[in-house]
Write a structure and sequence with these properties.
Strand content: 25-35%
CATH topology of the largest domain: Elongation Factor Tu (Ef-tu), domain 3
Order of helices and strands: HHEEEEEEEEEE
Number of strands: 10
Structural class: alpha+beta
Shape: elongated
CATH superfamily of the largest domain: Translation factors
Length: about 160
Amino acid sequence: KIEGRTKSRYYVARTAQAYRRAIDDAVAGRPFDMALLGELESLANRGYTDGFLERHHTEDHQNYMQGYSKSNRSLYVGDITGYDDAKGLADISVKNRFAVGDRLEIVHPSGNREIIVESMLNKKGEPVTEAAGSGISVKLPLPAADLQNAMLARYL
């Protein structure tokens, strides 16, 4: 169960990907891949607990001292909201800052892949070097692919 009222669809998607791989490995008789724990730990969170699974000491309870989540691996930066086949441009609804030169991960149900942002355009079709943050829309040149419901994360 994924808990937390502030969990974004990015968090849920990345967590579900890790769980899916763990389940597929277990069903296939493969040993547990410890790298999956690293993937979960890399997501912005305020710490994990056993919940009600085991009785634990006070120092093991959820972190209420820090009122925000942080990640040391990646940051959710936007949603792919459309694609122009003729121009090879993806429409991006920006959630957090990213810039030309950044290494991004396209997160998609069919699999993830990495890209380097080589250029981007603003809504008017003018070249820009940065998508400043939430509320901004930009266009990124991306190869044609199934990008429906895809999200973007910037490696930190």
